[in-house]
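Inputs:
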Amino acid sequence: MSADKLRSRDDDPSGRALSPVRKRSLAFFRVTALWEAFLVALGSLRQNKLRTALTLVGIVVGVAAVIAVVTIIQGLDNKVATTFSSQGSTVFSISKRPQIIRSREEFIKFNKRKDVRHEDADAVARLCSACWRVGEAANARETLKHGDQKFENVNIRGVSPTTMFDIDGRAVDAGRVWTDSEGISGREICVVGPDVLTNLFGGASADRVIGQEVRIAGRPFQIIGVLEPLGSIFGASRDSVAYIPYATYQKVYGARDSIVIFIQVPAAQQLEVAEDQVRTIMRNRRGGAFSQEDDEGFSLETQDVFLDLYGKATSNIYLVTIGVAAISLVVGGIVVMNIMLVSVTERTKEIGIRKAIGARRKDILTQFLIEAVMVTAIGGAIGVLTGFGLAYLIAALIGFPLLMSVGSAILGVGVSSVVGIVSGLWPAWRAARLDPIEALRAE
Amino acid sequence: MSDVTLATPPAPDVLPAPTQSTRGHDVNSLISMRDIWKTYQMGSEEVHALHGVSFDIPKGEYIAIIGPSGSGKSTLMNLIGCLDTPSQGEYWLNAKNVSEMDDDELARIRNQEVGFVFQTFNLLARATALHNVELPLIYGGVGSAQRHEMAKQALAAVDLADRVTHRPNELSGGQRQRVAIARALVNHPSILLADEPTGALDTHTSMEIMDLFERLHGEGNTIIVVTHEPDIAARAHRVISIRDGLIEKDEKIR
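Outputs:
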């Protein structure tokens, strides 16, 4: 027999001391118990594969929905940002009215301002040393005609000088832009966007359209160039446009309209200096008007105003969409809670045994919390992948660039883990509080 | 035979000497129960499961607690095993006043001072024999290498060295109970507390288990067996009979 040394501790002469080994190993305690909890949780998940799978589905759907929505929104935002900044973040404008007018009062106030005129653009071009390119532009909406073909609601953009093409970020695909002398003399020539080809010339190639005639406001214009496409934004095409010389624009629409001055700087860092210079120039030209009622008498804007407006208009929609997707995550959390409650009930006996041999409340609590968090974290990871896949499919269908961020992946797993903690807490707490005597009696 | 040994507890730290209780518990006893009451609330009625029970158990004793069902025997066992605290009275176990401890302190005492052996073994079904025996060490915070070693030795000591990786459903009833006994003793507890340890075993296996208890007692362990079977109680050296929540008889039988 080999049990000579198997004896209880009261055999120890003092009989009432914790052994040094045990004391020293107290530092181990968390790690050993945590590892045990981890293994138990893993075993339990393996044991009930179907149940684990069903729990996972709840979380996967929730996380995938949120990730897909967030990814699509980020892609959309990015698309909008790049589209709006086709003029680039190096461009700003001076106009009589801002591009966004929020109220009737504002409209009345801006309407009282003096028009921005060619002389203002001239002064800016002459006096602003930080400005690189200065141009002026005016816009109208018009129906274009060619033979019996009509193309309605085309943006007629009268610009001067031709550097406005560069400022607008537009390049010529075929043909040419007008010369300075053609521009000044107000000839009836135009450079059209590719949409004009599709709508008036049956999609003829750019080369074959050069030299053809279109009627703008009843006047015949000769097409001398075709622009490269820029695509559309919110369904509004940016290629449904015809550029004409500003002098010509004045002949057609009269000189009474206020123009917009566009200023481009070589690099974004110079933007502030250039803005300050232009503001000073314009204030001097407005003189008294600006000292009244606290208004400069003109609006200086960068393209950011559009992005701001877009952001304001869409942020609430986004929040609601993400919120709706998040509801499915809440449902997933409830599923986890339900399953964990079942798991606790099923393992009441086991909890009793563990408590009888020395597991403390927090040992039992962590065991079940780890199990819940493990399911939700795994579900979160699968959900992130599914969500990205979903977003990829949707993006491919709609056709915009996808932006998958590590941030949203971490967020997805993180949020689902938090869901695990929240929904696992109550079941785990119930398990931890079980009376060992009662628990041992369970079958 | 092999010279398998349990990792014996190293030299004890110096702890303050136990203070003499004002109620006069015996400092030389391993277990000292003084006027223990346990009262349950059943609806509007108070039911006294124990009405002022007092006794002492010195180190190294082999004792049986016997009584019919409903006698308060199970309640007493739960109190001795620190699964519960008395409604009134003092319980000193190994110089610690257990009656005033909270849940987590009780868990610690159960882990360090009490080795349970149950009628239905209460092993974790999915865990190997080794892991089952390791469990008290896990909650006691023993590092894995030392834990494996201690658990293997404990299994060897109950002649199960060759069943280390078996799960409970791969073991016979007697083997399962021996795994449970190894688990109870692996942490070198002050007492081995067995609740109807042979209740689920056939006569032959029962005798084997009782022989094992006798051997463990011979090696210096303090053993308390709770039973309603006179045969089993007769193997002990002292028998406490409980009836209606009171000690009816407390006699040395050998």
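Remarks. Chain B has one domain: 29-252. The beta strands of chain B are 29-42, 45-58, 62-66, 88-93, 96-97, 114-117, 191-195, 222-227, 238-243, 246-252.
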